[in-house]
Amino acid sequence: MKQDLKKSYAFQAGIIKAMAHPTRLLILNSLKKKETCVCELRDLVGDDISTVSKHLLVLKNAGLVAARREGNWLHYRLTCPCVLDFTNCIKRVMK
Fold it and tell me: How many structural domains is the chain composed of?
């Protein structure tokens, strides 16, 4: 039982760790509004496409975003928008 609980907390910590980067928080909050092409995310973030893709891979591996291909581009969306409630809670702590 304790082992299952520790695994659950480790998984949760992995998700929080994936979110713990300013660029990734920017991407997540942008995806809250709509599914977005990686090219638009690149423009929003202001980094090269490979850097943005690495951030998206971290978010995807954590289960926070999903992608679909359209032509040469990938379009990303949030898998669970309520995860951003966590950032709203942090904003209240900051006040």
Answer: 1
**Calpha distance 61→19 (Å, rounded):** 11
Predicted confidence (pLDDT) per residue in 1-57, tens digit: 788 889 989 998 999 999 999 999 999 999 998 999 999 999 999 999 999 999 999
Residue 21: which of 82, 73, 94, 87 has the closest Cα?
A: 87
Domain interval for residue 13: 2-94
pTM, 2 dp: 0.88
Q: Are 65 and 78 in contact, with CB atoms under 8 Å apart?
A: yes
Angle at CA 61, nearest 5°, toward 70 and 59?
A: 75
Element (H, E) at 66: strand 65-70
Q: Pairing between strand 36-37 and 65-70?
A: unpaired
Cα R_g (the chain), whole angstroms = 14
